[in-house]
Amino acid sequence: MAKVKYRKENSFSGGINQGVSPFAISESDSTEEYGWDFDEFPRRKTRKGLTNYGASGGAVTHLLTNYGNTHLVRAVGTKLQYDNSGTWADLTTGLAAADWDAVNFRGKLILTNGTDNVKQYNGSAVSDLNSSDAPKGKYITASINRVYIADGSTIYFSANNDETDWTTAEDSGADDFTVNGGDVTGLTYFRDQVTVFKKNAIGVYYGNNYFTQKLVTVSNDIGCVAYKTIKEVGDTLYFLGQNDVYAFQGGVPVPIGHGIRTYLDGINPAQIAKCNAYVRKDRYYLNLVTGGATEPNVRLVYDPRYGKWRVCALNEGIRYGAFLNNAAYIGDSSGQTYTVEGNTNNGTAIPWSITTKPFDEGKAEAEKYYSEAHFQGLFASGTTVTLAVSTQDRSGSFEVIDFDPTSASNFTQNRNVIIPLDTVPLAFWARFRLSGTGPVELEQMQRYFRLAAVQK
After folding, report:
1. Among 348, 382, 398, which residue terminates a domain?
2. Domain boundary among 348, 368, 403
3. CA quadruple 227, 330, 93, 120: dihedral positive or negative?
4. Residue 395 region, left (φ>0) first, then alpha (ψ -120 to 50), else beta?
5. Has residue 173 been placed in a domain?
6. Which of 64, 75, 146, 446 is paired with 20 by a 20 to 30 Å CA distance?
7. Among 119, 175, 172, 113, which residue's Cα sits nearest to residue 145?
8. CB-based burial of residue 124 (10 Å sphere; 0-12 exposed, 13-18 middle, 19+ buried)?
9. What is the pLDDT at residue 409?
């Protein structure tokens, strides 16, 4: 074995990258991870925790949204409730246990679920919008002067500046969006235009006058499969399509899900309607139902500034998200609402893990003897940390190495570990996994190794 000891370094500034062979990804990317966000990028810091916001509604969250900029409104089971400074009070009961869509328009929150009469909330009471004429569609949005509701493949629009009028000729009306067949799957208002989605098409309304507005197809291939994933971040609209996550700025939708390909390919098609998203700090948070799960079981975050994805958490059951007065809120499948700014999950330390790519050190044909690893980061008091190494490029077992970086840890430090040969034998490549609980900030890692002679 050569006596020369080599040194390689990687940071933890990358994201999850499942789109190519693990050997081909950046050294700062990960192949598996959870527990992270983009706060204090480029260092890798554990995500914010969830803190109960009021009592549970005791049933599935079917809506979480904001009434203007004053307070939250949620649907749990068969109830509509409003938030009174963290106390949830009933607005009305006896409704269908179905997902709702809602929009703020002219001082009202207008709500629809496809079954009950369309509702309106004025900040104090809920009533029917127009029990005889307002269409009971699943999706709703509003322009500056009209409300739009989709039912099947038809988009209905109210009269000018009158959300209760759905019948006046040459003022209210309807358009059939028949391209590619199938039903409308979502509505939103983006860049001063009402945008209509099917699972394989997108249409945009040009103009807002009854005589001039026109529904124009802008894509007859890409569409949205889960309306709760449609969210605007900055100047871009994000949504989940049939084959990818897309960023849309009014032209051709751009796929951005390369790094989370394994999660996208693993979506449970029977539960895809439960996939949803929310926005926090100009980031897009996507909750997917994958594998055999029946509730959202992976929370991902995309930061447009860096074009990277990270995995926030697993098995949370998030159904809806809302953003109000610079704070993010989520509601889960049990009816609990949370804020997303804590340092723990209701007092429980946040779990996290990160697995590097398989390092072949640029010489895949040569066996390596790894002797040392060095880590720079902040491992706060009370944090638990485990280091493990695998000599396989995927799956396989990890061998735990004795490593305790948590002493005197109220500042960033360098921590060293000897890698014993009887634990990690000669190998063509190696992956490193750090995991634990509690707050941590990772900066860099260095690995030292020697190369074995290559057989000729």
Report:
1. 348
2. 348
3. negative
4. left
5. yes
6. 446
7. 172
8. exposed
9. 62
Question: Measured between alpha carbons, how far is 177 from 349 in angstroms, rounded to an integer?
Answer: 49
**Do 192 and 318 reside in the same domain of the chain?**
yes
- The DSSP call for residue 422 is T
Q: What is the pLDDT of residue 412?
A: 82
| Cα gap 180→173, rounded to integer Å | 22
Do residue 359 and residue 283 come from a single domain?
no
42: in domain: no
State whether 223 and 357 are in the same domain: no
Residues 214 and 343 occupy one common structural domain? yes
> Which of 281, 168, 182, 289 has the alpha carbon at shortest distance from 228?
289
**Could you give the C-alpha distances from 329 to 83, 196, 285, 338, 414, in angstroms and in order?**
12, 26, 12, 6, 36
The CB density around residue 369, as the number of other CB atoms within 10 Å, is 18
Give percent helix, percent strand, percent coil of the chain, each to the nearest 5: 5, 50, 50
The pTM for the full model equals 0.96
Distance CA(52)–CA(63), nearest Å, equals 17
101, part of any domain: yes
* Same-domain status, 228 and 376: no
**Pair 12, 44: CB distance under 8 Å:** yes
Torsion region of 68: left, alpha or beta (phi above 0 gives left; psi -120 to 50 gives alpha):
left
Give me the average pLDDT of each 10-residue run along the chain (456 residues).
82 96 96 97 96 97 97 98 96 98 98 98 97 97 97 98 97 96 97 97 93 95 98 97 96 96 98 98 97 98 98 98 96 98 94 97 94 90 89 88 68 83 86 94 95 83
Cα 253 from chain centroid?
Answer: 18
Q: Which amino acid does the sequence have at 325?
A: N
Q: Report which of 328, 412, 373 is spatially closest to residue 40, judged by C-alpha positions.
A: 412
What is the extent of the structural domain holding 53?
A: 49-348
Look at residue 422 in the predicted model and tell me its pLDDT: 76
Instruction: Tell me the CB-side half-sphere exposure of residue 166, using CA atoms within 13 A.
Output: 20
